[in-house]
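Late entry, written up from scratch paper. The run itself happened at the end of the previous shift, but nothing got recorded in the book at the time, so transcribing now.
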Amino acid sequence: MPKRSGDGGGPADPALDGVFHALSDPTRRRIVERLGRGPATTSELARPFDMALPSFTQHLGVLERSGLVTSEKKGRVRTYRLTPAPLEQVDSWLAGQRALWTRRLDQLDALLHNLKEQQK
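Output as recorded:
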């Protein structure tokens, strides 16, 4: 039997959970935004942040484990690239949630309209 999420809403998806965890941090979201403009080295990515490099590389590790970024090392330089597939998976999940809640709100609207008409 698949593991269910805490609200009983369906099977858990560890990959999706990892992406949401990675995106839950503002530093990591800024890194993803930056990589959306193109590949960058560790030092280029770290430059705008006021934190020690080991702390910053931990953020990169979370992003890499989630599948949002990949890295390649040439000599002493590591370059990171955005991987779009996990973001597409999040987009698909959100589209499903949006459709579900739109349908539920439409049903509630119809019910309230019917109740209002019955009171007349």
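DSSP finds five helices and three strands in the chain.
(Scratch paper discarded after transcription.)
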